[in-house]
Amino acid sequence: AMPYEVTTFTLPCGTLATRADGSGIITGEDASALRTKIDPGGANFGQPLLVLTQQIVKMTSQARELFSRPNAPGSPQAWCAVVASSPLLRVTVNFLIRVSRSSQVIKLFPSERDAIAWMDERVRRHGPHLPAKA
What we know:
Helix content: 25-40%
Distance between the termini: 38 Å
């Protein structure tokens, strides 16, 4: 099984979003495969992203490095809600949010329900992503 199962779902407002359900040990290869889907040119590019980490055991340093890279200049910042129940993963995700300078678009939640409610509210107010910064 892939450490990230990537599917799509529809937010209450009707917008298509991506769900990335992580499990086990997330390696650089796994992080790269997920980024390929959500980065420019990928099938899920520009969709709001829900990341579930409840089944993740740990992330390797290569995975953390890949996830901490800022978006390509000029590409839109899609909303991203991360559900993290473990204190260790919450610390890791908070660190990645700071390093990637994406704090306006990525937020951490204790439950999937709260995460989806926030994404839905953002999309209703601003559209699926923030406008690209040049």
